[in-house]
Amino acid sequence: MHPRSEFRKRVATMPVSGEDDPHLARWLQPESVLCDVDVQDATALFDLASKEIARRHGLEPAPIARALARREQTGSTSLGNGFAIPHARISGIAEPLTLLIRLDEGIAFDAPDGIPVELFLFIMVPLADQHAHLQLLAAIAHVFSNREFRRAFDVATDGPAMSGLLRAGIAGIAR
């Protein structure tokens, strides 16, 4: 099976109830939301994301960027429709964290539908994590597969609006 198909199949079959893990909603709420970011490719995007994560957690950005790039080499984390969930395990964090980035223009990201990706939810989990990241991936894929949610999200004008919509979407699955 192609790695991209395997990724989407695993995400689609994971449970998405917040009852499975009481921390799920908190972990999914992005620490930071960056809007209308101008990057030319995935390398520049991963560099930006790794610097933001490193800055917030007192880490070195290079290992974060390498972890993201390594994960992406195994298969695209794009789910299609301009959305991707880059994710990796990193050292130096005690629990999962997320970072949401919306680009001003989509970039090529090996999407299954060929549409340039403009919305990225980065999920970083501790090295020892064996389960939480799959739950997080499934939950966020569930939220973003809702057409009404996605339409509202796509027209949100700033970080606080996007964060509020995401909070509401996450609350819907945490019940």
UniProtKB/TrEMBL annotation:
Keywords carried by this UniProt record: Sugar transport, Transport
Transcription listed as a keyword: no
Keyword ATP-binding: no
SUPFAM superfamilies cross-referenced by the UniProt entry: Phoshotransferase/anion transport protein (SSF55804)
Domain PTS EIIA type-2: 26-169
Pfam families (UniProt xref): PTS_EIIA_2
Any one Gene Ontology molecular-function term assigned to this protein's record: protein kinase activator activity
InterPro entries: PTrfase/Anion_transptr (IPR016152), PTS_EIIA_type-2_dom (IPR002178), PTS_SugarTrans_NitroReg (IPR051541)
Coiled-coil regions listed: none
Protein name: PTS sugar transporter subunit IIA
Organism: Scleromatobacter humisilvae
